[in-house]
Fold:
Amino acid sequence: MSSYRIHGATGDWEVVIGLEVHAQITSNAKLFSGASTAFGAEPNTQVSLVDAAMPGMLPVLNAECVRQAVRTGMAIEAQINKYSRFDRKNYFYADLPQGYQISQLYHPIVGEGSLTIDADDKAGIPEDKIIGIERIHIEQDAGKLMHDQHPTMSYVDLNRVGVALMEIVSRPDMTSPAEAGAYVRKLRAILRYVGSCDGNMEEGSMRADVNVSVRKVGDPELGTRTETKNVNSVRFVMQTIEFEAQRQVDLIEDGGTVVQETRLFDPGTGTTRTMRSKEDAHDYRYFPDPDLLPLELGEDFLAECRASLPELPDAKRARYESELGLTPYNARELTAEVETFARYETLLAETARRAGKSEAEVATQVANWALSVAPGVFKSLGDDADPAYATAQAQAAILELQAAGAISGGQAKEIYEIVLKTGREPGEIAETEGLKQQSDTGAIELAVDEVIAANPDKVEQYRGGKDKLFGFFVGQTMKAMQGKANPAVVNDLLKAKLG
Structure:
């Protein structure tokens, strides 16, 4: 149970949240035409006669869009409806040449499913929570109005008209901004794993309509909800909820009434504002599209869709823990994004190959490097780092040197910095730059003897029970060896000589 509460003058309130996520389906062509869906084209250069609603032009359904929607439904273990149908949603707006949007109201392609968000104590999510998904339906996108091109006129870009979208509608099961943020992140990860949407919210290929209502804690009745349209980042989704929930509580406690309406989020101020009154389904005069036959899916098609699914985030995370022995934290972080696990698995395979070991034997070493060390080095270098040099081969070579005791953790970072700036080979850098660890027992023993001889008082204190002084002796020995001594050898020798 979420602990998120809004403390009002009349008592504590809770927030109820549902999200309608619009995800652009990965496809080279639009839902009902062959026009391109590539991002960033010049305005009105990707518009077919169908998109422009020229008379006599009939829509032809893109089978790849159907396939991707079905695969997405399977990924959230939802009901796949073998029979579905397209409806016309009628409204007039300048960016909608047809005067209607083709969608699926009455018979969506995907029925009920669910998604589990992970526990996060810091965010106020004390335990894993299942969020119900009501439906996924396919629909076409509208165009885009541009108000900043001319002082007195608005321009219309129809490139997005007819682009295929999945609308993924959640149940009102979320009760805090943190839960909503976790839901969007998890859903985006699943879409990227499946390959049905690239999840680039900044490009508009994934955006959320945020439904928010409030009620007194313990009240079983839902309050009147507002819908904030087209929120395009996880952070903005959370800000929308925080602002809108507080606005509704203040309004009710001041004697007002929440109006069911559509609102817009202003990223500059973190506030929402009224856009229009909220329409109901009957306001759009939905009816079955007469130009499109009902969609009927066969068993062979469904079997092919299921067979094409990859290992999904929760299954991959469980495998990382059970088979590779990773901690729950490392497993969660490594599976959060497609790019992260892809880099990790490539590096893991190369490191295991070079070491002649199983992946499980080197998994933790590679995980620590991939999650902490490598990103830290890359970030510290900024523009001086060349991503082309961050190859799995180079990183595996560094890990191999470190595992063999030839270099220390600090030297591994230094070598990787040079690799990212120059592309040089790690072994050659270690040799020529003096970045090899000294494991010569004789030389280290001599340094240990000198440190002990120079600090008789601290030796006596250590032997008298001040165990923390051991770190002092290690530090002095490493200083004497100019930081190049093998720490394991230093520790062993000091333990032996200090008793």
In short: The chain has a mean pLDDT of 93. The first strand starts at residue 6 and ends at 8.
